Amino acid sequence: MKIVIAMDSFKGSLSSLEAGKAFAEGAALVYPDAKILIKPAADGGEGTAQALVEGLGGKWRRITVDDPLHQSRTARYGCLPDGTVVMEMAEAAGLTLIPEEKRDILKASTFGVGQMIRDAVEKGCRSFVIGIGGSATNDCGIGMLQALGFTFFDSGKKEIGWHGEDCGSVEKICMESQMKELKDCRFRIACDVTNPLLGEKGASMVYGPQKGADPLLAARMERMHRHFAEKTAQAVGKDYAGYPGAGAAGGLGFAFLAYLGAVLEPGIDLAMETAELEKNLKDADYVITGEGRLDDQSAMGKTPVGVARLAKKYGLPVIAVAGGVAPGANLCHEKGIDACFSILPEAMSLKQAMEPERAAENIRRTAEQIMRLIHTAENRKN
């Protein structure tokens, strides 16, 4: 028997790999001779880099970068055995890095994201997988681009600053100053939003208020973005402002598209492909997935449903486990998950349930019971 385990993290408790190992230990109590394969699973958001690095035997690199308001901080990115770099822009420019009272959308910059990329490029890396969720910025990626060597000048031929508001001052763009190695780099961006850069569904109008912009400020930044998009189109010969995902992360999606030739892809598909999940599913007998909580939102495209969608290409049974299974989780059955199980054996507080050792033991216990049921059914067939 071959069992493939591809579980998302139980956030605040167990990583993807830790949860998968716990299930494997429980399953082995019933099927000690089974081939049990643990693959990292994530949806492209927070925790994706950790899942891929830990699950695929990668290594972390830590460097000092500028946070959104240009204070020094340590950020990390992962290097996979095949040379692929896995990053999350939130490591350097995430909203959670800035206390709410200090958030300033006009000043926040993606410069630190560019510093991470530059460091990897200088170390010889050329293949990148980057998640861009959770940003504090609305600078159209101009900070990241400056860290990579692109230069921007105002009407007085003075090089502009790194801040969000500076994108509205660009009059001339120097493409030749970029790192020469960038032309050999491949950027795949985990992006689950389809917002364009501009308009009612654009970066400033939709996401600006989440980052501290009132309606007047959001409208002002919309004008800045429009100006930068026009100057960019003149420089690169193509208008990317209307592309789906261009408005992601305050216009960082636009910068990746227009300046770095990136491809924007659904996060879960990109994560599963990087983990080579599909080729390991083809000859499986059972697929196990899960996350901290299964509910109606899980059915909207979170990790377990993504794993199930891939497994159903090969007609495989899919079982999901979770810390909590809400009433809306039944919608997951329509998305390919055949059965859902809560790992909680008795009533307990959320704090207790999230204790790593307790959570791991609960997964092991649940795994054993699931596999005992499967064993009984398999014996009846034979």
What form results from the Cα inertia axes?
Answer: elongated
Widest beta sheet: strand line-up: 3-4-5-6-9-10
Major beta-sheet overview: 6 strands, mixed
CATH class of the largest domain: Alpha Beta
Portion in helices: 25-40%
Number of helices: 13
Number of domains: 2
DSSP, total strands: 13
Derived from helix and strand composition plus strand pairing, the structural class reads alpha/beta
CATH topology of the largest domain: Glycerate kinase, domain 2
Distance between the termini: 14 Å
Describe this structure in words.
- The protein is α/β, with parallel strands linked by helices and 382 residues long.
- It has two domains: 2-41 and 280-381, 3-Layer(aba) Sandwich (Rossmann fold), CATH 3.40.50.10350; 48-267, Glycerate kinase, domain 2.
- Helix content is 36%, strand content 18%.
- The protein has 13 helices and 13 strands.
- The chain has helices at 16-30, 48-55, 90-93, 111-122, 142-147, 203-207, 215-236, 248-260, 267-274, 277-281, 303-312, 350-353, 356-381; strands at residues 2-5, 35-38, 59-66, 72-79, 85-88, 127-131, 151-153, 172-174, 186-190, 263-265, 286-294, 318-325, 339-342.
- The chain has a six-stranded mixed sheet with strand order 3-4-5-6-9-10, sandwiched between helices. A five-stranded parallel sheet has the order 2-1-11-12-13. Strands 7-8 form a two-stranded antiparallel ribbon.
- A hairpin with a 5-residue loop joins strand 4 and strand 5 (85-88).
- Helix 1 packs across helix 13.
